[in-house]
């Protein structure tokens, strides 16, 4: 049997032995009573009875092991003209003192802390400082508007909020603190203190009594040691888009997460201690949590924290400059970044200007890797281009080409085979497994491996209802696709109302909730449509209230502003159109899926429950007029 097959088979038939072996690479204060506790499905728990500390494993033990002078983080910020290198010893010192600040402000084990920060090392210090004292962090992506931040403040109920005065996004300077202040005003929950890192290019006003200056607070803070936490204690909450305006608070534990992520660094990414790994994402997304901060640091690798864009900071050669300058072994990013580079530099002239001889592999995820981008990147970079598929919920790849185990032949359009630990199946709507090459719902037979979501924060019911109810005994990924005769998985896209815009996961339902508050609008639907660079962009269709005779273009401009103000510019909501009516079932459910198919130029069949099939023709014409409907 080939290595991959053997490793995979063991992970499924004997998960206890498999993950216990992986767990030997983590330092435990106390080892487990059970590797897997399956006594309360679907609430599986890994390493029950064990205690450890994630920060200790990601920072202190490398210093204790004589690697204190190795670089832990390379901060590369073309937007501020900075490159700095932070050793593990320096990281330990910064994290221990920031943990001291949190303690002084009353943060105890189990308390929650919100981190709303740009791509600077202090964002990583903040996450690790929470882990150090057993506090639960929730990082909110800096591109979210005040309202989205307020929703998360209300749900996570943080004692403290950590932020910075602002960021430079491409060429724009953005102030963060006014957003925090606005969110604090909107939210019912009141955090006690806000610690603000003042950046040289933008000053934040501090509210006396509530706000503290980051650097001043650090001066008097004691260095605090790591506290033991149970393996099953929460490490972080990461909110991700569901189908409504209320995001889902994915909860990750400490022990299973550390074991799984450390194992993936070699098995999936072929990264060893001391190697330089670069994940060009943002700490606000799951990729940033797993592969800018925790994974590489648990491994004792060097992680690159890049505050810039693939293009425009300053040009389409930015990625190659970083790879060459920092001797990056592997890069992980989203296909959208490569499509943006390809558009600016189709012949890859920038690539030739840099020494990429140490670069070994490119990893892409976050959205479907279109074969065009795959071929372009592999031809010009001349390294393996590895597509891998995962979700915020899983925290690491469900399907990948595990180069550290055995590099399998690539089939463009497929993220290769199930990663060890994931028993992936395809089922039809009734939950019946289908054969090879038949499209259906992609599900994972329970239990999920360690490191995946434990539950939704303070919402076990929604956890069960969202992921575990439709197909009992299986985790519902909400992605559709098929598995071919060789076991290669093909992911065709979401089956729900979640869309991926430039690698950012967003809810069309949340946008509909915003649009529905417009006084002139009776009802609306937002659907994801294809975009050559961003993968998908949202498009709105709305019905005006009767009697409204305003200029529709004005209303459309108001909708764009409303979505920017309430959700954020990252929603990229720019296109909408008024329609006379929306297609619905007789019970009143809007047929979003059918409209998505029309927009994509796919064959569609009017559902038998449709109220009036003629409406589909009207929608088709509208989308055509908007230049959106593709012809198949
Ligand atoms: N904070 C505040 N605003 C942000 C932001 C942040 N962190 N990130 C993006 N925005 C804003 C942008 O400034 C832009 O605003 P504008 O409409 O006023 O111009 C808007 O949100 C849309 O941004 P984006 O979708 O990033 O479009 P872009 O045209 O600026 O850049 C790409 C396009 C493809 C270069 C860029 O999206 C990119 O680098 N994507 C990779 C994403 C990624 O790595 N995702 C992680 C998953 S692995
Ligand atoms: P997120 O939770 O932001 O990581 O987004 C998860 C979603 O992105 C998945 O459910 C998929 O729809 C999509 N996705 C992620 N990686 C891939 C991939 N390699 N191929 C296809 N779709 C992907």
Automatic annotation (TrEMBL):
Q: Which InterPro entries match?
A: ACAS_N (IPR032387), AMP-bd_C (IPR025110), AMP-bd_C_sf (IPR045851), AMP-binding_CS (IPR020845), AMP-dep_synth/lig_dom (IPR000873), ANL_N_sf (IPR042099)
Ranges for domain AMP-dependent synthetase/ligase:
62-445
- Identify the residues that the record assigns to the AMP-binding enzyme C-terminal domain, covering every copy: 511-589
Residue ranges annotated for the Acetyl-coenzyme A synthetase N-terminal domain, each copy included = 4-58
- State the source organism's domain of life: Bacteria
Check the record and name the Pfam families matching this protein. ACAS_N (PF16177), AMP-binding (PF00501), AMP-binding_C (PF13193)
| CDD domains noted in UniProt | PrpE (cd05967)
Instruction: Name the family.
Output: Belongs to the ATP-dependent AMP-binding enzyme family.
UniProt-recorded name of the protein: Propionyl-CoA synthetase
Q: Which organism is it from?
A: Desulfofustis limnaeus
Q: Which gene encodes it?
A: acs_2
């Amino acid at each position: 049997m080939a290595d991959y097959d053997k490793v995979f088979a063991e992970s499924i038939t004997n998960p206890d032995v498999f993950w216990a072996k992986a767990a030997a690479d983590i330092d435990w204060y106390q080892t487990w009573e059970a590797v897997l506790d399956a006594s309360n499905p679907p609430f599986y728990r890994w390493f029950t009875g064990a205690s450890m500390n994630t920060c200790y494993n990601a920072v202190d033990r490398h210093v204790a092991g004589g690697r204190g002078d190795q670089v832990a983080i390379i901060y590369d910020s073309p937007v501020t003209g900075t490159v700095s290198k932070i050793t593990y010893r320096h990281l330990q010192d910064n994290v221990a003192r920031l943990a001291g600040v949190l303690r002084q402000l009353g943060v105890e084990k189990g308390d929650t802390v919100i981190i709303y920060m740009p791509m600077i090392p202090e964002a990583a210090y903040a996450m690790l400082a929470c882990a150090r004292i057993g506090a639960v962090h929730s990082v909110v992506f800096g591109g979210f508007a005040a309202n989205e931040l307020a929703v998360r403040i209300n749900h996570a109920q943080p004692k403290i909020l950590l932020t910075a005065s602002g960021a430079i996004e491409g060429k724009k300077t953005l102030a963060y603190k006014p957003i925090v202040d606005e969110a604090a005003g909107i939210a019912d929950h009141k955090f006690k203190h806000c610690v603000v890192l003042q950046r040289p290019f933008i000053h934040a006003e501090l509210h006396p009594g509530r706000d503290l200056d980051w650097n001043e607070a650090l001066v008097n803070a004691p260095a605090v040691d790591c506290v033991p936490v149970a393996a099953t204690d929460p490490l972080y909450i990461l909110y991700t888009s569901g189908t409504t305006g209320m995001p889902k608070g994915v909860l990750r534990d400490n022990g299973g997460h550390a074991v799984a992520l450390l194992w993936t660094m070699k098995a999936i990414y072929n990264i060893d201690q001391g190697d330089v790994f670069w994940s060009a994402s943002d700490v606000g997304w799951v990729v940033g949590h797993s592969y800018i901060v925790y994974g590489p640091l648990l491994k004792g690798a060097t992680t690159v924290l890049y505050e810039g864009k693939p293009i425009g900071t300053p040009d389409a050669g930015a990625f190659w400059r970083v790879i060459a300058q920092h001797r990056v072994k592997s890069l992980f990013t989203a296909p959208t970044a490569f499509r943006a580079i390809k558009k600016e530099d189709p012949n890859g002239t920038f690539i030739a200007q840099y020494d990429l001889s140490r670069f070994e592999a490119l990893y892409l995820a976050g959205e479907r890797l279109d074969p065009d981008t795959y071929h372009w990147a592999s031809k010009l970079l001349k390294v393996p281009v590895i597509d891998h598929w995962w979700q915020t919920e899983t925290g690491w790849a469900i399907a990948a080409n595990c180069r550290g185990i055995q590099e399998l032949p690539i089939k463009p359009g497929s993220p290769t085979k199930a990663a060890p630990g994931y028993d992936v199946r395809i089922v039809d709507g009734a939950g019946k497994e289908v054969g090879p090459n038949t499209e259906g719902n992609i599900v994972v037979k329970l239990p999920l491996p360690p490191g995946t979501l434990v539950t939704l924060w303070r919402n076990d019911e929604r956890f069960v209802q969202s992921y575990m109810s439709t197909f009992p005994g299986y985790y519902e990924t909400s992605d559709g696709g098929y598995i071919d005769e060789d076991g290669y998985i093909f992911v065709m896209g979401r089956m729900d109302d979640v869309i991926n815009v430039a690698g950012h996961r967003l809810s069309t339902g949340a946008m509909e909730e915003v649009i529905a508050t417009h006084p002139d609008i009776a009802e609306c639907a937002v659907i994801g449509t294809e975009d050559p660079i961003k993968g998908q962009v949202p498009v709105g269709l709305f019905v005006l209230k009767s009697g409204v005779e305003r200029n529709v273009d004005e209303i459309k401009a108001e909708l764009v502003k409303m979505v920017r103000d309430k959700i954020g510019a990252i929603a990229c909501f720019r296109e909408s159109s008024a329609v006379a009516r929306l297609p619905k079932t007789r019970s009143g459910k809007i047929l979003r899926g059918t409209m998505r198919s029309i927009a994509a130029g796919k064959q569609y069949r009017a559902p038998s429950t449709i109220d009036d099939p003629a409406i589909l023709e009207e929608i088709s014409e509208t989308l055509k007029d908007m230049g959106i409907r593709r012809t198949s």
